[in-house]
Amino acid sequence: MTASTSTLREWWSPACNGGGMVTIPAGDQGARVTVDADVVAIFRAVFAIFAKYRYAIRRADTGAYVCRAITGGTGYSLHAYGIAVDVNWQSNPYGPNLVTDMPPGAIREIEALNVDGEQIVRWGGRYSSNKDAMHFEVVVTPATARRFRFTPQEDLTIMDDATKRYFDRRFAEIEQKFAKRKEAEDQDRARDQRIERKLDQLLGR
């Protein structure tokens, strides 16, 4: 059984200690996250697993360290300790039902990361109440986190061609969806600008 949130707060206190944070790249789309120095290797492993499954981590809706209260509560969020990362929250929202576009195989491999058999990362999609599919948190002590080692070339297997084609197709579908959304937003912005210019002409501004 993994540690509770209150236990993790005790292990990783104090909260909002920005001086102990390190910023690292998350994927190859320009995303960067700031995490506690002791969990850098762990989250690099998480991002390497996503890369293996060709799951793109978006810069616009991915983040980690922030000094704030937990969602729906008053205590500090684990993000305030630099031990939690949110990935692609637009397509992996927080809510009563699990909604995610993350590859199941990637989730399984992330949850299998361990130190001497002890699970080190918990996925918010497993929460018993509201699901938090974007969310990954370290669930071990700082001392255990520092012992984690990960070598992608040795620990990650290569996907077969059929699996690669599937995720290539899914990635293309997601990219197309967001491209259409951006196009619609650009059209709305252009329309608003035309209306504003017309009003300026009518009002002599």
**CA gyration radius, whole angstroms:** 20 Å
- Apparent shape: globular
Low-confidence stretches: 153-158
- Mean of residue pLDDT values: 88
Explain what the structure shows.
- With 205 residues, the protein is an alpha+beta fold.
- The chain has 6 helices and 9 strands.
- It has helices at 5-12, 40-52, 104-112, 142-146, 152-155, 161-203; strands spanning 21-25, 32-36, 84-86, 94-95, 114-115, 118-119, 121-123, 131-132, 135-138.
- The protein has a 3-stranded antiparallel beta sheet, with helices on one face. Strands 1-2 form a two-stranded antiparallel ribbon. Strands 4-8 form a two-stranded antiparallel sheet.
Index terms:
single chain; two-stranded antiparallel ribbon; 6 helices; alpha+beta
Walk me through the topology.
Blueprint lengths: L4 H8 L8 E5 L6 E5 L3 H13 L31 E3 L7 E2 L8 H9 L1 E2 L2 E2 L1 E3 L7 E2 L2 E4 L3 H5 L5 H4 L5 H43 L2
Antiparallel strand pairs: 1-2, 3-9, 4-8, 5-6, 7-9
